[in-house]
Amino acid sequence: MPIIETRNLCKRYGTVMRVTNLALQVPEGSIYGFLGPNGAGKSTTLKMILGLVRPTQGEIQVFGQPMNRGNRIAVLRQVGSLIESPSYYGHLTGEENLRIVQTLRGLPPKAIREVLEIVRLEGQRGKKVCHYSLGMKQRLGIATALLGYPKLLILDEPTNGLDPAGIQEMRELIRDLPSRFGMTVVVSSHLLSEIDQMADTVGIIREGVLVFQDTLAALHGRSRHHLALRTTNNALAAQVLREKGIGWTEEGDYLVLPILPDEQAAGLCRALVEGRLGLVRLEERQKSLEDIFLELTGGKEVSL
Ligand SMILES: Nc1ncnc2c1ncn2[C@@H]1O[C@H](COP(=O)(O)OP(=O)(O)OP(=O)(O)O)[C@@H](O)[C@H]1O
């Protein structure tokens, strides 16, 4: 059973549809990387899941239950979130800020010490939040979201504004959560590299439309190796490929083929030469993950 499932989820602002027919499936215990360029609709989607923005249309199920007015509060009690920059009382310490939330949620006092330890802020717990660095404030935001060990954690661009060391620390912190606490984590980002290092499942959104959703391994699978062939007469070369039962696609001056075993590649070269074709290039190439992401999100036609 997916922990989050949306069906035909849509959001219109004014006359423009910003999220269109979104069908998210977040598996239990996963780190689901929700990836897309700025303005693609990530925050809007996460806010709809959290009941902060009303969907124009569609359904949302969390923990297998449809979100509606009757059960929203009960469901959200098991969800921790960090959306946009967290706000705090700057004149209070980190610990005091956490105490407010702990009291409101009726949690035992020891919960504060535990979450401070998880986000490695014990040393700064007595410092006023107005003297915290941005990274410390983000970690305090995660600590707040972790209070009560929610089954589901939703983090919207948690590394925004952090320096490289802060980004790495945040990444390591998030990566451990499913195995340490059995949580499911949804984390949004506009950076492929970040999701690549953190997530095991990926959803890619472009202009409000989900253009990819599968495991990270499946996304990597798309960046597989292939052969690029250029001859003095590609039309004739294509005929040779057809005779040999080798599939290809055309990309500019090249015919793109799957990787062939050495014997078959040698046989192909022989056949091309025997057919009096000039063999200009036969090279192995690999599409980078970045290429795939740009194709999926940048409006270029996807050729995989
Ligand atoms: N309250 C609102 N009223 C009108 N338009 C909005 C509102 N909130 C968001 N939008 C628009 O909806 C689109 C999606 O915004 P959203 O913040 O969800 O994108 P995002 O993928 O989270 O991007 P970013 O990474 O920049 O936060 C944008 O074009 C944005 O301008």
Automatic annotation (TrEMBL):
The keyword Plastid does not apply. InterPro entries: AAA+_ATPase, ABC_transporter-like_ATP-bd, ABC_transporter-like_CS, P-loop_NTPase. The keyword ATP-binding applies. SMART domains: AAA (SM00382). Pfam families: ABC_tran (PF00005). SUPFAM superfamilies: P-loop containing nucleoside triphosphate hydrolases. Residues 4-232 form the ABC transporter domain. GO terms for molecular function: ATP binding; ATP hydrolysis activity. Keywords: ATP-binding, Nucleotide-binding, Transport. Belongs to the ABC transporter superfamily. This is ABC transporter ATP-binding protein.
